Amino acid sequence: xxxxxxxxxxxxxxxxxxxxxxxxxxxxxxxxxxxxxxxxxxxxxxxxxxxxxxxxxxxxxxxxxxxxxxxxxxxxxxxxxxxxxxxxxxxxxxxxxxxxxxxxxxxxxxxxxxxxxxxxxxxxxxxxxxxxxxxxxxxxxxxxxxxxxxxxxxxxxxxxxxxxxxxxxxxxxxxxxxxxxxxxxxxxxxxxxxxxxxxxxxxxxxxxxxxxxxxxxxxxxxxxxxxxxxxxxxxxxxxxxxxxxxxxxxxxxxxxxxxxxxxxxxxxxxxxxxxxxxxxxxxxxxxxxxxxxxxxxxxxxxxxxxxxxxxxxxxxxxxxxxxxxxxxxxxxxxxxxxxxxxxxxxxxxxxxxxxxxxxxxxxxxxxxxxxxxxxxxxxxxxxxxxxxxxxxxxxxxxxxxxxxxxxxxxxxxxxxxxxxxxxxxxxxxxxxxxxxxxxxxxxxx
Amino acid sequence: xxxxxxxxxxxxxxxxxxxxxxxxxxxxxxxxxxxxxxxxxxxxxxxxxxxxxxxxxxxxxxxxxxxxxxxxxxxxxxxxxxxxxxxxxxxxxxxxxxxxxxxxxxxxxxxxxxxxxxxxxxxxx
Lengths: 445, 125
Ligand SMILES: Cc1cc2nc3c(=O)[nH]c(=O)nc-3n(C[C@H](O)[C@H](O)[C@H](O)COP(=O)(O)OP(=O)(O)OC[C@H]3O[C@@H](n4cnc5c(N)ncnc54)[C@H](O)[C@@H]3O)c2cc1C
Prior knowledge:
The structure holds two protein chains of two kinds. By secondary structure, chain A is of the alpha+beta class. Chain A has 13 helices and 21 strands. In chain A, the strands form five sheets. A seven-stranded mixed sheet of chain A has the order 6-5-15-16-17-14-18. Helices cover 31% and strands 37% of the residues of chain B. In chain B, strands 1, 2, 3, 4, 5 and 6 form a six-stranded antiparallel sheet that branches. The termini of chain B are far apart. Flavin-adenine dinucleotide is lined by residues 12-18, 41-44, 55, 57-60, 147-148, 176-178, 180, 183, 202, 204, 247, 249, 286, 288, 305-306, 310, 315-318, 320 of chain A.
């Protein structure tokens, strides 16, 4: 079952996964002298400000992905990247520790996904999703500005997609509709009889401070909060051009937790005193994929990006790239049968799922460390001390960096923590902190 | 929009990587251009220009030998460093990742072939 000249591919969704699938399908087809017609269905206008034009996300393009895209010939332009990130700042209580990128180079991008926050009409930057969809269009993809509402299979087994007005039959359908809103029945009708991804609710708000205040209060650093707040797995403030983004991830996000986070003195201290601790004009509660769909492929149908599997809490756009490229490579060079996808695509999909198992273990350990004050202080002071040491001697900093930036697979992070030198140093710092904090006996009169 | 610039900024003539160094990374020019020069017996020979979007410094990653040329910025240039390990890992997982670099290398070989035949003709060989 191969894609022949004139074959048609329908992609549900023009987020990063859908656009990159179209981009790579058409790139490979050109290389192999194959004529493909690729339709990308995307109802959002990514130029529109507010949620209608935005696939809500923190907007960090990870260090490996910035490099990977550059090698693929995709250089994210300054009209899309609002800030190059050169460090991460960890906060716990009144303590802060700065971890700079290994090369003192800006290799992490902070950007908006769509046309910018609600009520923001001065279009200074374009969003990532519009940019990637533009690349797919330049390669020859046809973008259909409509939502796919129906799907199914014809008598010959070919999948079809319908928008209400029209129905198109394809040689391959790619599911790239993410989990927001996540209409799983589209995939059931195509034959996917498996569990849909499990999701958790997250929170994002965009606060307008202006470039100058952002520069002076946040710099080019992502701020991570290492405080113990039950239900909150990750809390970050990400500086952009005119806005900073507050991004909270975890399985217990609710209004109370959000307010507690905004009232946290460490959070307030990052902001100018004029900030009232309230959400910005644009806020949303998008879902995040925390458990994959069990099964990513059938004959002539494959799931990529969030509607299949993604990396736990990190680098979701990177996972979209990996699944999109693997699906496109399989389709063009190995065919679109179930066997071809199972053989060539599923290993990539499974590697993401396997890696997330380490991710869960790491988040559990981090959660425990956050709960136990001496361990948390030990971790922070070890990181702080390592900043003046050579790269090779930085153990906690590398773990923290890879963990928070998504720069390395969770498996690598996990194995780095198994190094006895890591634990020896960590325990030493923890013990030192314990001693320093033990109340002294009152002096004898 | 200066905050949105990725990579590292180099001034005109500033050296990005040096001939003879052991290469642990390669580079991509994000903006501007760079010039590759080779130093032999105290003399500098300009090998060529590297334009925006092009990768350089990849030879040291493939053949594990010291860098064959010095590369410096030609005017202001912005350059992104690409980690050797990340590159090799990606190529291992997905060989097509190296396609763009292979394409560029084959272009360079064609150019060198043309140069060589021109030189041979010139020397009457
Ligand atoms: C709070 C939060 C913060 C995050 N932060 C980051 C981060 O900083 N960095 C990072 O790398 N990742 C981050 N992620 C993850 C990232 O957002 C996703 O992994 C990424 O968007 C996945 O891309 P996708 O194309 O699979 O899905 P999406 O981006 O969700 O795109 C799906 C597209 O499909 C379209 N669509 C949906 N249904 C239909 C239909 N029926 N017909 C046609 N089109 C349809 C939608 O309009 C949408 O454009 C974050 C996620 C959340 C929730």
